[in-house]
Input
Amino acid sequence: MLQRMKLWGGRFKGEADEGFARFNSSFAFDRRLMEADIEGSLAHAEALAAAGILSEGESNKIARGLREIMRRAREEKGYLDSRDAEDVHSFVEAALVAAIGDAGYKLHTGRSRNDQVATDLRLFLRGEIDTSQELTREAQRALIELAEANSDCVIPGYTHLQRAQPILFAHYLLAYYEMFKRDRERFSQVRARVNRLPLGAGALAGTGFPIDREAVARRLGFDALCENSVDAVSDRDFVIEFIGAAALAMMHLSRLAEDLIIYSTAEFGFIELSDAVSTGSSLMPQKKNPDSLELIRGKAGRVFGHHAALLATMKGLPLAYNKDMQEDKEALFDSIDTLRGSLGMMATVLRNVRVNAERTRIAATENYSTATDLADYLVRRAMEFRKAHDLVGKIVTYAIESGKSLVEIPLDDYRRFSVLFDEDVYSEITVHSSLLGKGASGGTSPARVREALSKARAEIDHG
Ligand code: ARG
Output
């Protein structure tokens, strides 16, 4: 146990209630900010030295002490198992004093835990955002690989979970590629607002020492300063914003998970998940369950919850700092861990999908999936679309009643509905021609999808 002077004991006569000390302590979780805390403190010590508040010798001694703490935290098992630290900041200060003596007490000059914790969080989150972006890119890569390996595969596209129109499986997968791309964009937009320096704001009023905040910002790789000292220590919008971006990414992952779960049922039979990402049942020997995907879907809810929780935590807080804000950390950490785990799992699942292209082809052909193409045929022969829609509706009803598919209806019957029909109608209502017809940009024609897929491949390899 570290011998130390408390961070704030001077005006107190009584001891803290033990239960309160435990309730108040965040060290069990905010020790995760240790590296960021030390990085920030190293920069602060330099700034104090530059301002002539610390001697070179003191500043070097502090830096050595801080590095030593970092090394021990990384290497020494049990080093962080301190039960009595209030938070990561008080732990580091106490450890510093234990390592280098009274010079350690000088480090907190011109600084408050309020600007310190905001700095730590921003430094930490910046790195985590970079990791989230990398993992999102890996999930995109897995989508592309699956699309490339099944580039001819056609599936029924759905609306209302009813078969709608045939689309290429690759086109479907690239829809998620686009969603993940926006997720990455969002992460980098959030990062730009995260990457600002609060240090130098002090408790709330600014610091009374001539600290060169610009130099500290440069030293720590921040793009800019938090301009107002009260704002710098008061807001956690950057945390909420990141969790919001993570929530959207989780929503996308969850929808993809849901699709794949449905597609892997016996009822659909479009895909099979390999044993590597499936589990069995403790009772039913025949079962193979998509737990990996269900967990992704389930975990999305946690991140949505953290987002709502933090908004609620912040909404009534008077400026500036309030201890309520300590609650930001577990929400943020769990959101990060959940997002990371889910992105990684999704990439793995996608690499363990086998597609039953025969089954999807049949499904894409059935249920009058090219009825819209039949209406378009009439439109190209100068019928108004609404009238063509109505007429094809009647043709479909007739086909259902006579147990025929669209290609099985004889031309004479077609012509009874409209004289605009000719022999060439049959070649225009196949799945293949339906796909070919969607050649406008963004559509599912094989040429467009090939183009989109190679663009995506280039983005992911070189972008
Ligand atoms: N552990 C605290 C938090 O996370 C650090 C800041 C404490 N500041 C204070 N004035 N009590 O919010």
User: Anything to note?
Assistant: The mean pLDDT is 96.
